[in-house]
């Protein structure tokens, strides 16, 4: 259901991220990885995509490959929290 939506509107991040999550949760890890790399290419500051890609790589036993994505996710989510605190 999500794959046709992603094909129809490939520039939209949200459907692709949902598709990646669906692949991740159904253990289709290579497909999840592919979608997440595309999300990050289109939106490099999407912290959840970095986190999920890191977790996807870990589940594939690729811990060293996962580390930079997990670090980036932590840095980006920390920056987002700091920004939220300053705007309140």
Give an overview in words.
This protein is mainly α and 88 residues long. The chain has one domain (2-87): Serine Threonine Protein Phosphatase 5, Tetratricopeptide repeat. It is 82% helix and 0% strand. The chain contains five helices and no strands. It has helices at 2-8, 13-25, 29-42, 47-59, 63-87. Helix 1 runs antiparallel to helix 2, helix 3 (29-42) packs antiparallel against helix 4 and helix 4 (47-59) packs antiparallel against helix 5 (63-87). The longest helix is centred in the C-terminal third of the chain and has 25 residues, at 63-87. The N and C termini lie far apart (38 Å). The model has no long low-confidence stretch (mean pLDDT 90).
Helices and strands in order:
Elements: H1 2-8, H2 13-25, H3 29-42, H4 47-59, H5 63-87
CATH topology: Serine Threonine Protein Phosphatase 5, Tetratricopeptide repeat
Uncertain runs? none
- The CATH homologous superfamily is termed Tetratricopeptide repeat domain
Instruction: Please provide the count of β strands.
Output: 0
Shape: globular
Architecture (CATH level 2) name: Alpha Horseshoe
Order of helices and strands: HHHHH
Reported for the largest beta sheet, the result is:
none
SS strand fraction: under 5%
Cα separation of the termini = 38 Å
Mean pLDDT: 90
Q: How many DSSP H or I helices?
A: 5
| Total tally of structural domains | 1
Query: In percent, how helical is the residue content?
Result: over 70%
What structural category arises from helix and sheet content? mainly alpha
- The radius of gyration over CA amounts to 14 Å
- According to CATH, what is the class? Mainly Alpha
């Amino acid at each position: 259901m999500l794959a046709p939506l992603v094909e129809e509107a490939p520039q939209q991040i949200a459907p692709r991220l949902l598709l990646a999550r669906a692949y991740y949760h159904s253990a289709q890890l290579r497909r999840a990885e592919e979608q997440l790399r595309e999300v990050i290419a289109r939106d490099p500051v999407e912290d959840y995509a970095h986190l999920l890609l890191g977790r996807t790589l870990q589940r594939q036993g690729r811990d060293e490959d996962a580390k930079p994505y997990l670090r980036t996710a932590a840095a980006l989510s920390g920056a987002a929290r700091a920004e939220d605190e300053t705007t309140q």
